TrEMBL record, chain A:
Keyword match Oxidoreductase: no
Ranges that cross the membrane: 25-45, 66-85, 133-157, 191-208
Family membership: Belongs to the HupC/HyaC/HydC family.
Keywords: Cell membrane, Electron transport, Heme, Iron, Membrane, Metal-binding, Transmembrane, Transmembrane helix, Transport
UniProt name for this protein: HupC protein
GO molecular function: electron transfer activity; heme binding; iron ion binding
SUPFAM superfamilies hit by this protein: Transmembrane di-heme cytochromes
From TrEMBL, chain B:
Pfam families named among the record's database cross-references: NiFe_hyd_SSU_C, Oxidored_q6
GO annotation terms (biological process): anaerobic respiration
Residues binding [4Fe-4S] cluster 1: 61, 64, 159, 195
Top class in the EC scheme: oxidoreductase
Family label: Belongs to the [NiFe]/[NiFeSe] hydrogenase small subunit family.
Gene source species: Novosphingobium nitrogenifigens DSM 19370
Cellular component terms per the entry's GO annotation: [Ni-Fe] hydrogenase complex; ferredoxin hydrogenase complex; plasma membrane
Subunit structure: Heterodimer of a large and a small subunit.
Family annotation (PROSITE patterns): TAT
Cofactor: [3Fe-4S] cluster; [4Fe-4S] cluster
Protein name: hydrogenase (acceptor)
GO function terms (MF aspect): 3 iron, 4 sulfur cluster binding; 4 iron, 4 sulfur cluster binding; electron transfer activity; ferredoxin hydrogenase activity; hydrogenase (acceptor) activity; metal ion binding
Matches recorded under InterPro entries: Cytochrome-c3_hydrogenase_C, NADH_UbQ_OxRdtase-like_20kDa, NiFe-Hase_small_C_sf, NiFe_Hase_small_N_sf, NiFe_hydrogenase_ssu, TAT_signal
Domain of life: Bacteria
Length: 236, 370
């Protein structure tokens, strides 16, 4: 299933096309949306200082909420698209969306990478896409948190929109799950935001660190799609 | 049983036909029904026998009754009480003691399966219900017995609907809302939450049940949609200030004087389903936000356990200290930030030592995981 190495560098190390264009586009759209969602979401919880003058002259909080809702819906559409792409895209496109959690080899890889990150052992393995630990953390800390945020976010959005399909599909059931209390959903949506912040911190740190330590262009591969691979090691 | 209709009772009480007709149209309007329904309500009132109601009081503060008898509706205080044939309500009835309790038995026997059980307050389950004794026995028993024989149950107020203050943590008496009482007969329950519910909402719900002999349409949580499908926030007259970003920062600031949005001083309007911002209180005179106080969300499940009334961010227990989602989030993100910095430093040191030749850099293992 691994992509065939297509190009050879002068050192004899093949270049692999890891991230297809739709995946890269999704990544950067998401990164932008999440940044905006964080800023506007924080402001919705703790609004900026009050404005003076006629209310008709301002629409500040309206804009903050509009940006938040728009980015949230872009993220929701992105997740649906990305799930679809994990079926039609290349081998690497399904790594973080549908990880091989039933594969023993995958979990062994997670253990080895954990040891390596704990600096107990030298990083010894090469994976063209993500390493198993990266896959696991992205699947749990990103994919599931993102789904949670989209579902709770749509539930809260449906409250303002009133009766309609979003209210029926998301608001009603989500409120029931959270003890019939909208305030509790707000609190968990808030926790989700901080979980996402933690993911972003770890994600950026790990990418920069790998970029430096592995002498591979990890960061630019999310722009060009190509990554140098000494040896392709499928993760399952 | 006498076939005395609502209309008969009203006339007997000296209410004119003109007032009666006005009451019917106002009730139809309050229920959000088209004008044609005024005649239907009138017809029902003139032809249907009164439905007896047992109004029971468990652990409660009687604010529901206080609200109910103050229905700003022109005729409410005279009419509604007669209209529903309130056979038993220990705070309103003249009878007391054994005489009063006998009425419960009489109603149960006479109207078995045909009366409405209105519950104000809730039963405590701990100590076999000893924390609430009515007529010499636990309210829990009285409630269960009446529920066995009633047609339907109205859960008045936040106590009966959700538990309210007596069920707030740590809930020492294990006060339990009506629909969660174990062993209670499986009867249809309508929840009319609020602490207290709005008088006109209470009278309208009763009028609807009497007119159509069924509950109004309920939402997923069992509340009548006509009054609880929108949040206070959705119809709040201060909403333009919210969208503009004009907030009261302190109760004595310029914004408070100008009537800005109370969101920043903890208004729970955006998370509270009730009709206060449309129906309002005391005959449509005002409601908390109009009086300059944030909504405390009294009709929401567990509103006592959601932290300060004056803060939007809910306190989260279980961390030893009072904390909210932002404090916990910043702490966690900070800890992760420090951890990554430490990890980066450790990685750099290790790499420097490798380069210096202190540690032999192992050749990368390309064997895969086997």
């Amino acid at each position: 299933m691994a992509s065939t190495p297509v190009d050879d560098t002068p050192q004899g190390e093949p270049l692999v096309y890891v991230y297809e264009a739709p995946v890269r586009l999704w990544h950067w759209v998401n990164a932008t949306a999440i940044t905006l969602l964080f800023v506007t979401g924080y402001l919705i919880g703790s609004p900026p200082p009050s404005l003076n003058g006629e209310p008709s002259a301002h629409y500040l909080f309206g804009w903050i909420r509009f940006i938040h809702f728009s980015c949230g819906q872009i993220m929701a559409v992105g997740i649906i698209f990305r799930f679809y792409w994990s079926f039609v895209g290349n081998y690497f496109s399904r790594e973080i969306i549908r990880p091989p959690v039933l594969s023993r080899k995958f979990w062994k890889g997670v253990m080895l990478e954990t040891k390596s990150y704990a600096l107990a052992e030298h990083s010894s393995r090469r994976y063209v896409g993500h390493n198993p630990l990266a896959i696991l953390s992205m699947h749990v800390l990103f994919v599931w948190v993102a789904v949670f945020m989209v579902v709770t976010g749509l539930a809260l959005y449906g409250e303002g929109e009133g009766p309609g399909w979003i209210h029926t599909v998301f608001t009603g059931p989500v409120l029931l799950l959270f003890g019939n209390n909208s305030l509790t959903v707000h609190t968990w949506h808030h926790f989700g935001m901080w979980a996402m912040v933690i993911f972003v911190l770890v994600h950026i740190y790990a990418a920069v660190r790998e970029d430096i330590l592995s002498r591979e262009a990890i960061i630019t591969s999310m722009i060009s799609g190509w990554r140098k691979a000494r040896k392709v090691t499928p993760i399952d | 049983m006498a076939t005395e209709t609502f209309y008969d009772v009203m006339r007997r009480q000296g209410i004119t036909r003109r007032s009666f007709t006005k009451f019917c149209s106002l009730t139809a309007a309050a229920l959000g029904l088209p004008p044609a329904y005024a005649a239907e309500i009138q017809n029902a009132m003139e032809t249907k026998p009164r439905i007896p109601v047992l109004w029971m009081h468990g652990l409660e503060c009687t604010c529901c009754s206080e609200s109910f008898i103050r229905s700003g509706h022109p005729l409410a205080k005279d009419v509604i009480l007669s209209m529903i044939s309130l056979d038993y309500d220990d705070t309103l009835m003249a009878a007391a003691g054994h005489q009063a309790e006998a009425i419960v038995q009489e109603t149960i026997q006479k109207y078995d399966g045909n009366f409405i059980l209105a519950v104000e307050g809730n039963p405590p389950l701990n100590q076999e219900g000893m924390s609430c004794i009515i007529g010499g026995r636990p309210f829990l028993e009285q409630l269960k017995e009446a529920a066995d024989h009633c047609k339907a149950i109205i859960s008045w107020g936040s106590c009966a609907s959700w538990g309210c203050v007596q069920a707030a943590r740590p809930n020492p008496t294990q006060a339990t809302p009506v629909h969660k009482v174990p062993g209670l007969a499986d009867k249809p329950i309508i929840k009319v939450p609020g602490c207290p519910p709005i008088a006109e909402v209470m009278t309208a719900v009763i009028a609807y049940i009497l007119t159509f002999e069924r509950f109004p349409e309920l939402d997923l949580q069992g509340r009548p949609k006509m009054f609880y499908s929108q949040r206070i926030h959705d119809k709040c007259y201060r909403r333009p200030h919210f969208d503009a970003g004009q907030f009261v920062e302190h109760f004595d600031d310029e914004g408070a004087r100008k009537g800005y949005c109370l969101y920043k001083v903890g208004c729970k309007g955006p998370t509270t389903y009730n009709a206060c911002s449309t129906v309002r209180w005391n005959g449509g005179l005002s409601f908390p936000i109009q009086a300059g106080h944030p909504c405390i969300g009294c009709s929401e499940d567990g509103f006592w356990d959601k932290g300060s009334f004056y803060n939007r961010l809910v306190d989260v227990n279980g961390f030893g200290i009072e904390a909210n989602a932002d404090k916990i989030g910043v702490t966690a993100a900070g800890a992760v930030g420090i951890a990554t910095a430490a990890h980066a430093a450790a990685s750099a040191v290790r790499r420097a030592r490798q380069k210096a030749g202190d540690e032999p850099a192992k050749a990368h293992d390309f064997e895969g995981q086997n």
